Amino acid sequence: MTATDNAKAMTTLDAQTIYQQSLNLQAAAVSQGIQVRALAETEFPRTLRVVNKAGEDVEILIAKKHMNRGEWTTMAHNNAGAVASAANDDWDTIFMRDAAGRRAAVHVPSASEVTVRALSTTPFVSESFRVVCNDQAEDVIAVENRTPRPILVQVTPSVISSGRDVVGQWAEIQPGALKQWTRNDAQMVIVQYDGGLRDAVLAEPASKVDFGGPEPLVIMPIEDTTKIQVTNETKDPIEVQVSNYSGGSKAWFTIAPGASDT
After folding, report:
1. Given this chain, do its domains 3-116 and 129-211 carry the same CATH topology?
2. How many other CB atoms are there within 10 angstroms of residue 40's CB atom?
3. What Å distances lie between residue 194 and 11, 68, 191, 234, CA to CA?
4. Spatial distance between the Cα atoms of 21 and 196, rounded to a whole number of angstroms
5. pTM score, two decimals?
6. pLDDT tens-place string over residues 66-95
7. Residue 65: is its pLDDT beyond 80?
8. Terminal CA-to-CA distance of the chain, rounded, Å?
9. Residue 215, pLDDT above cutoff 80
10. Is the pLDDT confidence value at 21 over 50?
């Protein structure tokens, strides 16, 4: 069974239900000036709709519609259009940008109306992700699974037609493992976890994306079995106390973002 087959089997919930449960996807849309509305069962055609209310022209790229071609379409202010995705697609990823360099990207169910209100200057990064510079390669996006369970990852839209790595393919990453994608444009890194829930982050080439999941604590083994190591993967300092430590102080210790203590 391939990773894409695993993605299909991971959940029996429909795309709209998963979206309502994937709070980070909703927060990403709102923070970027994007309004997402689920189409009612009575609304036809039941296909992705994009509406531009940003006050200026924007460029739109629909990942599955344009596949590996990387084609952007200009949409005038107050314009709207229905975008027919590939058959039987439950999800799609929409990229937007304007003349000032502002941009946004959202991952939504295909039967949605996506309204661009005002593009943000800063892409949204949920607490599930940590995105850092990858100095090893300028055209690579690396994704590491920092959770204790396997995850499924998709990096889209590919604009490199290799015949193997195309839009719609999922890759399974085991706990502690890392996978790399060769890309020369900004991409949406989409993660499926915990029975089908989804999260996503916009990443540039030469980025390393760590996925720690929504859990406040992720427990993984280390080589030294006599020690406990705490790593702060959040964006803020945290305070830590090892309460069952039999010797020494019971004081709290501050760990800076990205730092570790043992």
Report:
1. yes
2. 9
3. 9, 29, 10, 20
4. 10
5. 0.75
6. 554 568 889 999 888 766 554 445 899 999
7. no
8. 40
9. no
10. yes
Structure tokens at 81: 């259009």
In the block, tokens 């995705």 appear at: 85
Residue listed under structure tokens 């949406």 = 188
In terms of Cα–Cα distance, which of 76, 43, 80, 48 is closest to 62?
48
Between 37-41, 145-149, 164-168, 179-183, the lowest mean confidence (pLDDT) is in 164-168
172, amino acid identity? E
> Hey, CA dihedral for 161, 162, 168, 173, is it positive or negative?
negative
Domain ranges for the chain, please list them: 3-116, 129-211, 221-262
Reported CATH class of domain 3-116: mainly beta
Report the pLDDT value the prediction gives residue 67, as an integer from 0 to 100. Answer: 54
Determine the pLDDT at residue 161: 42
| 3-class DSSP string for the chain | CCHHHHHHHCCCCCHHHHHHHCHHHHHHHHHCCEEEEECCCCCCCCCEEEEECCCCCEEEEEHHHHCCCCCCEEECCCCEEEECCCCCCCEEEEEEECCCCCEEEEEEECCEEEEECCCCCCCCCCCCEEEEECCCCCCEEEEEECCCCCEEEEEECCCCCCCCCCCCCCEEECCCCEEEEECCCCEEEEEEEHHHEEEEEEECCCEEEEECCCCCCCCCCCCCCCCCCEECCCCCCEEECCCCCCCCCCCCEEECCCCEEC
pLDDT-derived band at 232 (thresholds 50, 70, 90) equals confident
**Geometric angle at alpha carbon 78, from 74 and 83, rounded to 5°:** 55
Q: Judge whether residue 164 has pLDDT over 50.
A: no
Mean pLDDT of the chain: 83
**For domain 129-211, is the CATH number 2.60.40?**
yes
